[in-house]
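From the methods appendix. Each design record in this collection lists the tokenized structure first, followed by the designed amino acid sequence. Records were kept in a plain field format so they could be parsed without special tools. The example shown here is representative of the layout used throughout.

RECORD:
FOLD TOKENS (290 positions):
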């Protein structure tokens, strides 16, 4: 692969130990000859560091060969939505709990030298395009993990109808519905009983949340499928659409949500020769304390 010369560095300094880790990362990158770009809002924390500060996230990403995040999977998801349109690969350093998408742990920073040597590979991950059609028009969002339609905290179960490629498919009475990418299959979908899907595959996983049914199983669709979803809403029911756990939209009566695969892809840098299933097992073993 091409050697990395410049990187956008996006830390989540609210994470415990993230400030110290970011300082070490900057030092390592300087030693191996990689220039660092960060947003101006971080300048007060790293005034003496050899860093170029710019105003906006898209600015630092467009100037760089890659994006390096320090935080949890949420930090990576945020960066991915900016990096994908610019076709920039990402590498995450995990400061969160599990960090399925992160490529390195804080004790593995010496492996960053592989970036300067071009000794890495890139995985291409499918993203979802989520279209919300309402009386005010249509808004589109992009998800690397999932789109979730769910009830409010005080609402009763909601009725959700699903069409597949314009043909009526099914109806759920449940707390909600998760539409995930293969990358997101190990996140909320897994917790709701969904399958684990190898992240470089191309498919859409649909998992009901606490369905009031004897047959509330997940369904896996081909990546070219179009799913049209309508949730029954009235004055006593609150329904929300949440994208990657970050963006929330209120769903009203007669609104429609359309889920398709996106033309955009997220690109993740891999530095370690470990299979996804080995990573999955290791992460859950750490969580269990084995």
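DESIGN:
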């Amino acid at each position: 692969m091409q050697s990395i010369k410049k990187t956008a560095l996006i830390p989540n300094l609210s994470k415990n130990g993230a400030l110290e880790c970011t300082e070490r990362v900057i030092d390592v990158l300087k030693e191996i000859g990689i220039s660092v770009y960060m947003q101006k809002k971080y300048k007060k924390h790293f005034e003496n560091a050899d860093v170029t500060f710019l105003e906006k996230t898209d600015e630092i990403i467009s100037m760089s060969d890659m994006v390096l995040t320090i935080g949890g999977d949420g930090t990576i998801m945020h960066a991915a939505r900016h990096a994908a349109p610019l076709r920039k690969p990402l590498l995450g350093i995990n400061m969160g709990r599990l960090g399925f998408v992160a490529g390195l742990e804080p004790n593995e920073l010496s492996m960053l030298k592989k970036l300067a040597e071009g000794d890495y590979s890139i995985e291409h991950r499918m993203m979802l395009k989520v279209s919300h059609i309402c009386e005010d028009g249509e808004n589109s969002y992009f998800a690397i993990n999932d789109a979730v339609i769910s009830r409010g905290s005080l609402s009763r179960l909601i009725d959700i109808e699903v069409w597949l490629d314009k043909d009526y498919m099914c109806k759920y009475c449940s707390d909600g519905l998760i539409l995930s990418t293969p990358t997101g299959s190990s996140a909320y979908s897994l917790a709701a009983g969904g399958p684990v899907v190898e992240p470089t595959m191309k498919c859409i996983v649909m998992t009901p949340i606490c369905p009031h049914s004897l047959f509330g199983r997940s369904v896996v669709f081909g990546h070219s499928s179009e799913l049209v979803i309508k949730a029954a809403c009235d004055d006593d029911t609150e329904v929300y659409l949440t994208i990657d756990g970050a963006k929330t939209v209120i769903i009203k009566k007669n609104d429609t949500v359309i889920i398709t695969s996106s033309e955009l892809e997220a690109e993740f840098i891999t530095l370690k020769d470990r299979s996804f299933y080995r990573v999955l097992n290791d992460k859950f073993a750490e969580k269990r304390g084995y």
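APPENDIX NOTE: Residues 18-31 form the longest helix (14 residues).
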